[in-house]
From TrEMBL:
Species: Pristionchus mayeri
Taxonomic classification: Eukaryota, Metazoa, Ecdysozoa, Nematoda, Chromadorea
GO biological process, one term: lipid catabolic process
Highest taxon listed in the record's lineage: Eukaryota
One annotated GO molecular function: lipase activity
Stored PANTHER family: FASTING INDUCED LIPASE, LIPASE RELATED
Name of this protein: Lipase
Length: 283
């Protein structure tokens, strides 16, 4: 399944208009742009719907559809799983360096979370990966965007269920190469992804980007329960930065830390742990 279901598409058009629906459906990416929605209007959900938030240089139809397929094998339905693509990587391998956590990306994720809540009438769970973690945390936090001062609105905590952040650069990035952390953004603040406003600037302790300061100033707003998953050997975001574990979320209820997984593998090997976290089971 990819692209929103006909039922969800019609619901979005009716309640929010074609333009907003198109902005999160991302038909320009063909089948990779989005997924989710009831197969028929009276279909019942037995779980909270999950909004998956992809990482840098990715699309809904990449790692997130792989995750959703695994969730499906564990009993989830397409009416309980949703994703949009908040940027367009367009096959550029260096595109990740040009990414920033722009307000428009945050708005798309926020709109999907709110729409899924309205559409299903249930609290929304979020499973976010990599840069999708700080982006979705800001989407839930609301308030002013750091890059353009536009106001997102109130916190969404009241409509959230469980939040799971996987391999998130919450405190910045210090990729672990050959076992040694490397303060990438302290050395190259001119790379857009590292910029000190809406980027991942970090490593010049204790200074961080305005975006990271903003999402870390408040505790436990991401959901009723908040969990994180990380690895000590993450070659993309790293593990420790300025004596803080970057994948950890302030005020979280629990975490899983792998000793040996790389960045993408931390997500791909933790599906069953994510599901346990979402369902309140031991992990």
């Amino acid at each position: 399944s990819s692209h929103f279901s006909t039922d969800f598409t019609q619901w979005l058009d009716k309640h929010h208009g074609v333009g907003l629906r198109q902005s999160i459906e991302r038909a320009d990416l063909n089948l990779a742009g989005s997924f989710g929605g009831r197969q028929y209007a009276t279909e019942k959900l037995t779980r909270n719907p999950v909004v998956f938030v992809h990482g840098v240089s990715n699309v809904a139809g990449g790692m997130m559809i792989e995750a959703a397929t695994h969730y499906r094998n564990r009993g989830y339905t397409w009416a309980e799983m949703y994703a949009t693509t908040y940027d367009n990587p367009g096959g550029d391998n260096m595109k990740w360096m040009k990414y920033t956590m722009k307000c428009e990306h945050v708005r798309k994720v926020r709109f999907l979370i709110e729409a899924v809540h309205q559409y299903t009438g249930r609290p929304v769970d979020v499973v976010a990966f990599s840069m999708g973690v700080p982006i979705s945390r800001k989407a839930i936090l609301g308030g002013q965007c750091v890059d353009n001062n536009s106001d997102l609105g109130h916190r969404l905590t009241g409509i959230m269920g469980t939040y799971v952040g996987v391999s998130g650069p919450n405190k910045g990035v210090a990729p672990v190469m050959m076992g040694i952390p490397y303060a990438l953004c302290a050395m190259s603040p001119m790379i857009p992804v590292c910029n000190p406003v809406d980027g991942l600037f970090s490593g010049f302790c204790p200074f961080k980007s305005r975006f990271l300061d903003d999402i870390n100033r408040h505790h436990h707003y991401e959901g009723q329960r908040v969990y994180s998953i990380g690895s000590t050997m993450d070659e993309v975001v790293g593990h420790n930065i300025c004596m803080e574990v970057t994948t950890r979320i302030n005020g979280q209820n629990g975490e899983k830390i792998y000793k040996d997984q790389k960045h993408d593998a931390t997500f791909k090997t933790s599906y069953d742990i994510q599901i346990a976290m979402l369902s309140g089971k031991a992990f």
